[in-house]
């Protein structure tokens, strides 16, 4: 049996409104898991919301997609330009729901996202990944992403 097709479907305003609190809570927790204090993680969340969702809706150019595996909601992909020049695009967030992991969904979503970025004039696509996320790091390396910057920390 063939794998169901992975499709990216742009979120509606109502879907974004439902997604935003959950995604930002997920981001805040990921920052804590990476070593931020609760205050730092909350500040990072607020900064992201103010920059990209000042009125609860994405600023111009930021694209939020549901990842669909067949007819099922398998996660989300958020990408958009880094700045007003639009040549450097960024994968701001990729999440595959746990029950859909280890099935190639993230890989296929990333490849579809790369195509979307190209269609919008991007010549480069960047992303951040927390150091504890070994699976994502392996996926991104396999897709040809290279380390551009490396932050390291040690608890004292």
Describe this protein's structure.
This protein has four helices and five strands, in the order βααβββαβα. By secondary structure, it is α+β, with helices and mostly antiparallel strands. A hairpin with a 6-residue loop joins strand 3 (72-81) and strand 4. The mean pLDDT is 93. It has helices at residues 13-33, 38-52, 105-119, 134-142; strands spanning 6-10, 63-69, 72-81, 88-96, 124-127. The chain is globular and about 45 Å long. Strands 1-2-3-4-5 form a five-stranded mixed beta sheet, covered by helices on one side. It has a single domain (6-142), classed as Aminopeptidase, CATH 3.40.630. Residues 14-156 form the N-acetyltransferase domain. InterPro entries: Acyl_CoA_acyltransferase, GNAT_dom, YpeA/RimI_acetyltransf. Pfam families: Acetyltransf_1. This is GNAT family N-acetyltransferase.
CATH class: Alpha Beta
Which superfamily, in CATH terms, is the homologous superfamily? Answer: Gcn5-related N-acetyltransferase (GNAT)
Assigned CATH architecture: 3-Layer(aba) Sandwich
Q: Show unreliable segments.
A: none
Examine the coordinates and then state which fold CATH places here, giving the name of the CATH topology.
Answer: Aminopeptidase
Helical content band = 25-40%
**Could you give the order of strands across the largest sheet?**
1-2-3-4-5
Average pLDDT level? 93
Secondary-structure content class: alpha+beta
Count of alpha/pi helices: 4
Overall geometry:
globular
Strand content: 15-25%
Can you write the helix and strand succession as a string?
EHHEEEHEH
Distance between the termini: 52 Å
The figure for the number of domains is 1
Q: What's the total count of β strands?
A: 5
Radius of gyration of CA atoms, rounded to a whole number:
16 Å
Pfam families: Acetyltransf_1 (PF00583)
Keywords: Acyltransferase, Transferase
Domain N-acetyltransferase: 14-156
GO molecular function: acyltransferase activity, transferring groups other than amino-acyl groups
